[in-house]
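Need tokens for this chain, all 308 residues.
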Amino acid sequence: MIELMKKDKIHTLITAVFTVAVIMIVGSLIVLSWNNHKLQRQKAAEIAEKQEAQLEAEREQAALEAELKEKTRDAEIEALKQQILDLQTKAAINAKVPVASSSSNDQLANLVKKWSPRVAHIECHWYDSKGSLSGRANGSATIVYFTGTGIRAVTSKHILFDIRGNNPKDCKVELLSGSVYTVLVNDANVMLSRSEDWAYLTLPSDTTLTNLTREKLNICKNVNVGDSLVVLGYPKIGSKSGLTVTEGIVSGIDDVYYITSAKIDKGNSGGAAFLVKDACYLGIPTASVVGTIESLGRILKASFVIGN
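Here are the structure tokens for all 308 residues:
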């Protein structure tokens, strides 16, 4: 009987040990399975995060490429427009210096011949942070020697100063003779008016420009309403293929401006106006309405811009 009881206790103990072992093994498997599941979820989250970051980078790159293409297309369109204007001008202009009026007055012809070499075409360029062309301004300029400061291109402020208040990176100044000067624009070689539409761009003092500006500009002093004048410049209708000359009269005087009946287009801005009777420098033409040539324009007085 005692022997039988011992066997039952041993059997019970073995059963208990076996049960505990099974429970421990099952528990370990459950914990391992949970850890594996948790690790898989973490890996899946990391993969999803990386994929999202990659997609975001691809979207940003696509947006930048689209923006670059848009800016490039705009620059190409502007270049094509300029080419069309140049072709139209070449077809319409047979002389190097076309005079818009039919006047055969020798005094007028001599004035144009004398001063037209000093009126230049100016083109300024703006670039974005990637170096792509982002803006362009065209106009006219008058080459003037200033005692003590050198040779400058006198032009309109809006050609050297965009609507965001930025100067261009560079400007190309082309004379009627074909000489071209490319100037990198900086604070040292640009001067802008705070109140009126005029500006200076300093040019190199080489032999060509020194000879061109040897004779001092005669600033007009005796100006009356009704006096005849001529405007020299490179308007859109004339483009940069040839200087255009238009005639008119002094229609009125408004503070630092002369009002004129002469046809002035946007590209005439920064050019030169001369009084016929004295062959004197009247000032800087300014279009009263952008792109319009039939309305009364204004001429900023030369005495206000460069003094006497």
